[in-house]
Specification:
The structure is a homohexamer of 144-residue chains. In chain A, 28% of the residues lie in helices and 30% in strands. The first copy, chain A, has a 5-stranded mixed beta sheet. The first copy, chain A, is an alpha+beta fold and 144 residues long. Chain A has 4 helices and 5 strands, in the order βαβαβαββα. Chain A is elongated. Chain A has one domain: Tetrahydropterin Synthase, Chain A (2-Layer Sandwich), CATH 3.30.479. Chains in contact: A-B, A-E, A-F, B-C, B-D, C-D, C-E, D-F, E-F. The A-B interface holds A 11, 13-16, 33-35, 37, 39-44, 81-84, 87-88, 128-129 and B 11, 13-16, 33-35, 37, 39-44, 81-84, 87-88, 128-129.
């Protein structure tokens, strides 16, 4: 069976700030710029979840993308859409909600939510029209 | 001289909530849904400002769109980008920051910022990939 | 109250053909080209529904766009998504499902589905990346 | 018959500069900025041509959009695609190739190229992701 | 010579259904959902074909993308555009026309259509704004 | 620390031609088509620069994307925006400005401009809506 990648896109809107409370205002401004505004800002995130696996000979699917959407909705979107990433998301507690950290956290939410034989291949997270991040999972060294 | 419309697009990111403090949680939920989350959410706004006027015979411009961009940046973007629309924007104080009200307020910020002979024709404000608002200014009755 | 336009976008996928059974194959080919293929083809339609009205002073809304989405889903998308426009849609029976006729039929489905004081302003229907149609309702003469 | 608007999009790539030879370098820089570079620059233009008319009861078309595309290709795209707007386009000779002037010139190329009963309603010309122009034809006063 | 990847995008529109005739209506609904509608539905497909190879020192090309477009048009688009994927495409006979199977079949149509020294690197096929598939060819094990 | 990729997008507009002066007009036409027009043409380029590295535990960043933008602006955009790629860009002198060669040259401009521990992973350059190129750097063999 050929190995194919399938991607499902979802959208959500969240507030966040990038700010270390133990740093001074100047340090925060210097490192995080406008993103450190203590009154929050927010984004329309675009999230592409890619899974990889053999094509099922009967369905022609790597997996049912509706099921993938349900998993992404239940494990990610329901927790972050119209939410504040710094204060409301249990699986982001203590995490600086940069796009990088957010993508890695989404990976960890989804990696074990897939059917047998299907693996999470990529989390692509667009924060703005000009900024995006992708994570393809831990390296072999990390996995050990 | 032909009358032409020219549009300049800008992007910005803001936090907001839609919530009336004098209403109960239930009323807020019922009317504003997830947008009433008291912990904020946010958006990547796309703003298209359209001006209309005769084409200058020497420059071929309705107006210099760089100047339009500077006006939009100074009067709108600088105040709202990476900001909280409910608490940080003087010209939105006391205004429910719905897309509709936001677009009207942007109109009022820009209508008198244009060169002689050029009129603001349209404010188009996209809040999400699926929701947008446009305002073309007060009616003649309102202007009186 | 300012009069503002608000737009909600929805997506759906349908099959159709453009073909007059009383015409010869040659006539159909000549007028409708590949769209006359009797084995069907299909599109990802993008539908923008624009409503117009005064902004409610309490909510800041022309109308709740979630309610608009519900109306569009119930009256249009539920009938046409993953459907065949020629044979399965009661309100398109006997209608050549061109983008033009489809947009007009969508207008007729929605014009009376809006709250008091809100009027349907525009149906914009994109059939392909390069082809789209817009309908803003019957003229005054037609309405009489 | 309902009156509907149909739009066909085309793409082309051109070089141009905005520069008045009788002006000094300083004046050109001041008015046209980087666009005055005497070594040229260029754009991927996106052109949306909108026509308006009654829907034909047999075809469901305002007009055959393939015919519209052929007219736009023959009268506009063939002359400007992979061309220099300042020096190679007969119908732009002596015209400052701003987006505004270009849109008006395109209107004049197409207004009389449509079938009976169909009128050119709008020329929308996007020069960059952030800048665009639209022209809806001469006013009644101009037409007299 | 550096090894570079070049991508050509094409668009086409097709009808299809996902349905196994030997299954009951309930099984088909359960696995394929609305896609199993026996009256067909369809999509605007976006197809990105990526080739990889050394850059020719004289032309600066991996290969002439116009030639790539001609190959994609002749071997893929001409067979599937405005066609029914289930019943009209010889190289899809007996294939469930899921996006996955479709992408693999497109790979097989193109892999041997490229000039010497250029290899097909990726077939990316978008079926809807939210669903897409990519195939990068058989693994080494499969190729043996 | 997880290894993540972050991408910053920039836009610029340039003129160029693809033409070998030592070739006849016929040869140039045959190989480069309309791109060989000696009067130039141009494009709105979209450039995605991807960097890869471990996520900083304090900032959550692979690197500050504003710093990446500054590097891309200083080393690439400032030299090519509103410029002629054939005659004005020192680091393209003697280079046929195909998208492939341009992407490789951009790689060479940026590969050593990144902070310690961050590597350039990909240069993606879109020349038109349908044509794009990506370069992921020299192979190990080339690097030796």
């Amino acid at each position: 069976m050929p190995i194919v990648r399938a991607t499902r896109r979802v959208h959500f809107c969240s507030a966040h700030m990038l700010r270390r409370p133990e740093w001074s205002e100047e340090e925060n401004r210097s490192v995080f710029g406008d993103c450190s505004n203590p009154n929050w800002h927010g984004h329309n995130y675009v999230l592409d979840i890619t899974v990889e696996g053999p094509v099922d000979p009967e369905t022609g699917f790597v997996m049912d993308l509706k099921k993938l959407k349900e998993a992404v909705t239940a494990r990610v979107v329901a927790d972050v859409d119209h939410r504040n990433l710094n204060v409301e998301v249990p699986w982001l507690t203590g995490v600086m909600p940069s796009t990088e950290n957010f993508a890695v956290a989404i990976w960890d939410r989804l990696a074990d939510a897939l059917p047998d034989g299907v693996r999470l291949q990529r989390v692509f997270l667009r924060e703005t029209p000009n900024n995006a991040v992708e994570y393809t999972g831990p390296s072999e060294a990390e996995r050990r």
